[in-house]
Amino acid sequence: MKKDISTEEKILTAAGQIFKSKGYAGARMQEIADKAGINKAMLHYYFRSKKMLFDKIFKEILSSFHQNIVKILNDDINWEKKIIVLTERFFLFVSKNKDIPIFIFNELHKNPEFFQKQLLRFETIRNSSFFKELKTEMEKGNIVKTDPLQVLIHIFSGMIFPVIAEPIISSIGDFNNDGFESFMYQRKEIIPKIIIEYLKNNGEK
Amino acid sequence: MKKDISTEEKILTAAGQIFKSKGYAGARMQEIADKAGINKAMLHYYFRSKKMLFDKIFKEILSSFHQNIVKILNDDINWEKKIIVLTERFFLFVSKNKDIPIFIFNELHKNPEFFQKQLLRFETIRNSSFFKELKTEMEKGNIVKTDPLQVLIHIFSGMIFPVIAEPIISSIGDFNNDGFESFMYQRKEIIPKIIIEYLKNNGEK
DNA sequence: TCATAGTTTAACCTGTTAGTTTAACCACAT
DNA sequence: ATGTGGTTAAACTAACAGGTTAAACTATGA
Fold first, then answer.
1. CB under 8 Å to A124, separation ≥6 — which residues?
2. For A28-85, how does the pLDDT look when each residue is reduced to its tens digit (9 = 90+)?
3. What is the CATH code of the structural domain delimited by A58-200?
4. CA A126 → CA A69, A95, A104, A129, B168, distances in Å?
5. A179-198, pLDDT tens digit by residue?
6. Domain chopping of chain A, boundaries
7. How far in angstroms lies nucleotide D2's C1' from the CA of residue B42?
8. CB-CB: which of A104, A125, A173 is closest to B172?
9. Whose C1' is closest to the CA of A50: which nucleotide?
10. What CATH number is given for A1-48 in this structure?
11. How far is the CA of B87 from the C1' of C19 (A)?
């Protein structure tokens, strides 16, 4: 109890980096220990097993990702502005955390049952003010009737997918680093425009 | 020389399945051997090492993915119809090969230098009739000026991302299997509509 | 000073993994 | 039958993984 948390903290930081870049199966306890600057036995002293250490980290990442989304979805601005802000925020988030999305999706793909154990309260997303406002506008006939989740996934996929697929996109576009960044910057402008135009295109056709 | 290729073929099929579902680090040579119905030593007899076996399979998957795209991009139909067809085809492809995209992106993420070795000719995508026609229409002022690659990535992300993120989307939407499928079916209709509307929305604003 | 709880270390243990070797096997030509 | 080349299964090996142990160290309070 007297010890400052630095050792535990160092382990979590190091383990987070290793797991995110190599995945569960590719990560080595020794490598995590080395990166944390401690002995391998310490990992087991603090977290008992590789699985437990991983679960703790994965749970934290998943939960912060979830909270992040919910917070934005409940911002007190109108739906149109919120689509723009959502895109902007996701752009910032994935730019700073490029390896988190692929890490989450990959581990979830290999271990789908992990999700049931998590009990993340996803109804907070369905019940967010963003979803509610969209539904209200749809009922009023102001915007196209569609599943609000489709709208959210437009934003997710529009901004998260390119980061996951960066090596391929950069190859197709023959980009260097700057090229890809400006591609993403363009995207940040286009995505909300596309979605909003689509939703507003009601009376036509 | 007398032997038919069935053994090699069986190995490749089995290894493909295991690698795709577990990734390189998670795959076990013994498991591949079992699935192929042969002895572990045979894997080494035919492919020398795990790395070589993996490289061969990864190369094949990447290449077939690439060829698949190029073929569709050069279909002899106009751009508008092509967006619809592209979306449809990607929908079918990812539905039948749900674990290929995440596998490719994940392994590429862990081993980015693999790409340089591949020398896939991505200019065939930039030079496809789809890209050319979009550029022509943009110059004529018939559609909004934008990078054709952005349009392609709209389709990719719109259809591929949801498959990668299926567990999360199903949780948010509280879907069972059918629920997710009908979500994707809706999506297949929405995505081309959104893109085409956006491109045609030229004079306004 | 001594006792104690918490922390750290090095050495060790055990199971698993990729990769190797050996010997048996089988069809077939001589 | 016998030898031969290609093919297979099984046992083996060395390295490495995760995990354990026991002893040493450190700070603190009695």
1. A70
2. 999 999 999 999 999 999 999 999 999 999 999 989 888 888 998 998 899 999 999 9
3. 1.10.357
4. 11, 26, 21, 9, 13
5. 999 999 999 999 999 999 99
6. 1-48, 58-200
7. 29
8. A125
9. D18
10. 1.10.10.60
11. 45
